[in-house]
Amino acid sequence: MPPKPILSRPLDLLYLIFFLTHVPVMLCVDLTPLYPAFVHASLPFLGRIRAWYVATYRDRFFVAPPGWFRMFIWMEAGMHVPLSLWMVGALVRGMCFLALLIVRVVRMWDGACLEGGMEVCCAGL
Q1: Could you tell me what percent of the chain has a pLDDT over 90?
Q2: In a domain, 1, yes or no
Q3: Which distant-in-sequence residues (6+ apart) come within 8 Å of 34 by Cβ?
Q4: 1-28 in b/e burial notation, b at 16+ Cβ within 10 A?
Q5: Using only C-alpha atoms, what is the Rg of the chain?
Q6: For residues 105 and 91, which has the higher predicted lDDT (pLDDT)?
Q7: CA-based max dimension of the chain
Q8: 97 or 124: which carries more pLDDT confidence?
Q9: Is residue 72 part of a domain?
Q10: pTM for the model
């Protein structure tokens, strides 16, 4: 049976909007320290966007990044960006259960479920 259209699945649409906005933020703000100099020279708006973000939100990880933060950025580039791109396709194709499972795993990885434990994090799966 073909999946329902994305517009008829409001929660999936919300997740889709999140991932569609999250990917450009990662590419234009979070990952810019990993880009080689020629990318910064070719796309100077990346530096301006990141500078605006730092000045506006004073994110402590961007103002004075701890030593481990560069590795975290590499993990975001290697895992979070590909997973987010995959989620966009999965949500559009109607792979809802699998997409929900991935969202739960990401929430657990981010620490959102650590307080309540696995039974709280996986409730509803």
Answers
A1: 50
A2: no
A3: 73, 74, 77
A4: eeeeeeeebeebeebbeebeebbeebeb
A5: 17
A6: 91
A7: 51
A8: 97
A9: yes
A10: 0.72
* Three-state SS annotation for 9-24: CHHHHHHHHHHHHHHH
Tokens of 54: 């730092």
Q: What is the mean pLDDT of the chain?
A: 82
Lowest pLDDT segment from 61-65, 81-85, 118-122: 118-122
In a domain, 84, yes or no: yes
Residue among 110, 106, 90 at smallest CA distance from 98: 90
Q: Does some domain include residue 82?
A: yes
Q: Which residue has the higher pLDDT, 116 or 105?
A: 105
Of residues 23, 13, 19, the one with CA closest to residue 81: 23
- Expressed as residue numbers, the domain containing 63 is 6-94
The total number of structural domains in the chain stands at: 1
CA distances from residue 31 to 23, 65, 98, 109 in whole angstroms, order as listed = 10, 13, 27, 19
The residues, any chain, with a CB within 8 Å of residue 113's CB and separated by 6 or more, are: 104, 107, 120, 121
First to last CA, the chain: 21
